[in-house]
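User: Study the fold:
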Amino acid sequence: MIRRREFVTLLGGAAAAWPMAARAQPERKRRIGVLMNLAADDAQSMARIAAFLQGLQQFGWTDGRNVAIEYRWGAGDPERTRKFAAELVALAPDVILAVGSFTVLPLQQVSRTVPIVFANVTDPVGAGIVANLARPGGNATGFLTFEYGISAKWLELLKQIVPGTTRAAVLRDPTIIASISQFASIQSVAPSLGVELTPIDTRNAGDIERAVVAFASEPNAALIVVTGTSAIIHRELIISLASRHRLPAVYPFRYYVTSGGLMSYGPDVIDFYRRVAGYVDRILKGEKPADLPVQAPTKYELVINLKTAKGLGLEIPTSVLARADEVIE
């Protein structure tokens, strides 16, 4: 029989041990899904993931320690992307990072409850991903790639660098609302600049090459590449065709120019993924995508490749060079 004094002593000791036991229990490891639109071995994929992981670490999240990250790579294949969207949702992650409307829409077809943070989406309202930018209202929020007005700047830049341009091919993905709308934005300023536009679909390499070769057969031509997964996947081909056929070209992102493209005007894509980590952190801590506003780029950068310009026989006006954020020698 336990005496009263012994019982009280035992009870007090147990009570003191409870908080210690609770503290000793490991915190539940959170799960993050990542659905990329490119292939795993694409240099852009690796750079984006590195920035995302760096951002997570700044908020105290480390893969393998307190979060487990599941990656899937769509590689521009719609069927593959739909399959991976279903796989990730089945894992019941706390949140999913999705890149481009190409990946967000398949995820939302599977689930309207799993939280999604997106990057590189140009028109989430038009695509039906969110109700509005200020209050998304559903299970997704994230970061805009562009405002449509920026698209007109691409043609204006071409005219400043090559005033004799009278024809411009616009490489776009006709399956993406954003590509169509960007083409419309460029078209709105084309007549005043004396430029006739020709749309070229970027669905596969063969179509791109045939269309660009045919377009380049006439003089005073240039290229404009708008956003879209297919253009990113085929970027090396597009840059090579522009060089081979001596076509001045403007691109939406810096990495086209570092790969040999003439110039780009657009946001810092890698910075998106550091900022995405902030929204993922907030959702892991209990906030809802419906209450987190979609954010627009904070800065657009003009990047010019002088080596490519020289190869095309172009002299970049000093007024344009003075506005450049980066000049590649």
